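Review box. Two proteins, two foldings.
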Amino acid sequence: MVKYVLKRVALMLLTLFIISTMCFVLIHLLPEAPILRGIGKDPNLQVIERERQGLNDSIIAQYGRFLANIFAYGYWGNGLQMYKTSEVTEIIGQKMPYTIVLNLWSIILSVPLGLLFGIYAALRKNRWQDHLISVLVVIFISVPSYVYAFLVQYILCFKLGWFDLQIKSLADASIMSPAMFYSMLPAIFSLGFGTVAGLTRYTRAELSEVLTSEFMLLARTKGLTKRQATTRHALKNAMVVILPMIIGEFIGILSGSLIIEGIFGVPGIGSLYITSIRMRDYNFFMALTVFYTFIGLLGGIVIDISYGFIDPRIRMGSRK
């Protein structure tokens, strides 16, 4: 297991380096940022500004300086186009709680619902309840989350007037206050639809397969009721596949919700990432790209390792 983990970590770091290098080169090949085109018509002002930001150097030199600052000082630079007087890590740290709270509430509410719907559909397999849930799952998985966001915003916020179109600011309420939670509910609903649908599908598929296994028939012949056999044996075996998916969802809460945050005005790192791409703020873009990539790769490793802890019979990386 240790050898397997070390190998996966090494591959993760290599993949992270390749992706970050590609993103650095591609973002610098884009046309110069709007603010550089608008600082004045005098070409000398443009040259001075680019020289101050180090953009006149070659891409290789800029990338070398970028890596040297990170590994030597842990410095990701200041904002080039936005938050010019603040460090990138400082601004990300200020906006991170919004993203964490939003995604955490979404997962906390979505996981129990997904498990319940999946179990209910498996127990009612091939009945009208199962068909209805399956159709809804296909719909919610196929439709992008931003479509739900617009529907939720239109129905709950605009038509019914239950919520504000945008979440409250910290000046109005604390990030963990009931008022803030209530204002985040439309965004939480929009994020949760896909998670509920995906977890329902996996739970239904795994539990349906386990319920038709031979050991379940043996358990019933020994006198266990259907409920006892399901809770003692079927759910336990189905969770071997379902739990890693849930763990992956919790690991991925930091990955944010790029479009949802923008629609509901959530001042998190997702909306900051979109703005950095539009403004071509290289430092913010690279810091958030590395962050998102690292979280995604780490989540994959944790999911794979969790199989071995959930079921000791599974040995990751074994040749036999």
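Next protein.
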Amino acid sequence: MTDKLQSVEDRFEKVNELLCRPETVSDNELYKKLMRELKQLTPVVEKFREYKKIEADMNEAREIVSDSSLDRDFRDMAQEEFEQAKEKLAVCQEELKILLLPKDPNDEKNVIVEIRAGAGGEEAALFANSLFRMYSMYAESKGWKTEIMNESPTELGGYKEISFLVDGEGAYSRLKFESGVHRVQRVPETESQGRIQTSTVTVAVLPEAEEVDFELNPADLQIDVFRSSGAGGQKVNKTSSAIRVTHLPTGMVVECQDERSQYKNKDKALAVLRSRLLEIEREKQHEEIAGERKSQVGTGDRSERIRTYNFPQGRVSDHRIGLTLYKIEAIMNGDIDEIIDALITADTAQKMKAEE
């Protein structure tokens, strides 16, 4: 591990040197690329330097302890310092192992979140709206921006489906475990008998693909223009500004009708399409790497039931890690850090086990 860490520190020094060169500063793309790399290397290097300092202190204390010519009290004090340094070194070593785990290249990207009502009719559509609100409030608490890409509202205020962009540093790293089936158990407002209904909503979290990540061939695209439609006459455009993009090789269809500008709708639709197609490529790569799926918390598959929101009992249970929290109101208001932190911890532990 020390050799690997030393090579990281050497690269850190080299990147710093490159950033000081005039030709780097004048090349905007290269400068941004090196700054991103520096940001990734910095926590590893800082922790490695802390490790080396603790190791040096420990070795110094060991020398004092083994020197019989020194005062006994002084040697006892050094022994105590040696034991403390030894404990610190073990902790630092574990932290370094985590920092050296392979990073998901998409972690710092923005995300496109797609929420679709599943089983349960209007109640599922209403819960889709609840999840959209939950993620929007969470994004706001992080200082991230949200922008609706496409929506299909229902007359009672739900969503058959809604897709939106979350723009913020590290958005994918925090939201990527949200992909899957979310199950809700509650008494619908329309239920006169007070019976609990179970409904489902599927969530897909896609890293926003840049044009350099996935290039679309214009010959593969069929673009149709139509008039926007809204629930109960809301948000209906009188001009044909809504866009439907069909990717002919896969048959994938993306619609966007949120903006009044045809060009903005087209850009948004292409962004969603690019991200979906990139996700398909990533899925293929994951399947080719034996066992990689097993080292992740859940598969991220939209058909996998990941969480249950039980309103009568006030609990939210994440089935992948066996976590149950009795604070459903706070969670529905965007307080989901405790769940996300637990999922990241479990994922890190599984990855460390796989590295052994």
